[in-house]
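User: I'm new to structure prediction. If I give you an amino acid sequence, what do you actually give back? Let's try with this one:
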Amino acid sequence: MPPGRGFLIAGGVVTGVGIFPLLLGAALRADYDPDSNKLLNPNGTGLLISGGALALLGITFLIVGGALRGSYNRSRRQTHVRWAPHVARTSHASLVAGLHLQF
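Assistant: Good question. You get back a string of structure tokens that encode the predicted 3D arrangement of the chain. For your 103 residues, that looks like this:
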């Protein structure tokens, strides 16, 4: 599996899961009574914090996964030709050391 794919998948899932409590918390937090200057439902604060934290974590995963995936794709476009050490066995059971091209 190419690097970054796991971060991208996890980031999408965590962001999607975090958006739901974030929106629900915003809807509950909007239940405000201006006459008494109080929130009618204080549960929205906890949902906003947890949903925001999950969404922020998911977005971070997406950024890291995108960066890893981008560097992987850039490195795949470059050709890697190098000399590598190589040891081989001859038909007479002796060893021959040398270099070979590795693509």
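You can read the tokens as a compact description of the fold. Here is one thing that stands out. The first strand starts at residue 32 and ends at 33.
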